[in-house]
Specification:
147 residues; alpha+beta; Aminopeptidase; 4 helices; globular
Length: 147
């Protein structure tokens, strides 16, 4: 029988996310500005979603599930846990085009990139103002009470 646990990682566990993210653009964790939520399957970190506090806004990224664990709803569980704990604030994301409908189920809506907070928009400067051409769609979820 498989056991799953969805929860926020402790700072001492951030290395687990970094190890997983070796498969996802080699992302690094910043315990001072980030919260990481994950799904553990039989004690192994199988999915993540990261909430980063920037000077001018909150961003969700690093929604990642390795191939072995895909198709089981773990990304949905990780994002739901993040929203449960961080959703009282407005959250911005850079969604890939194919995942827009997935994020809409959490209340995210597409926005023009000029509506992103400066520090979040700057992470995609390589798109030269054409995020759609980079397969990216800026989205926002307005803050509010989370059930």
């Amino acid at each position: 029988m498989t056991t799953t646990e969805t929860r926020e990682l402790t700072r001492d566990e951030f290395y687990l996310a970094e190890k997983l993210w070796e498969q996802y653009r080699g992302q690094k964790a910043d315990p001072l500005h980030e919260r990481i939520f994950g799904v553990f399957v039989d004690g192994t970190l199988a999915a993540t979603a990261r909430c980063t506090k920037h000077p001018d806004g909150i961003e969700m990224d690093c929604v990642f599930v390795p191939e072995t664990y895909r198709g089981k709803g773990y990304a949905r569980d990780a994002v739901a846990e993040l929203i449960k704990h961080c959703g009282e604030e407005t959250i911005h994301i850079h969604s890939t085009i194919v995942l827009i409908s997935f994020y809409k189920t959490f209340g995210f809506t597409p926005i023009p990139e000029d509506q992103l907070p400066r520090s979040i928009k700057e992470r995609f400067l390589f798109c030269f103002g054409e995020m759609l051409g980079c397969n990216v769609c800026p989205m926002v979820r307005m803050g509010g009470a989370v059930r």
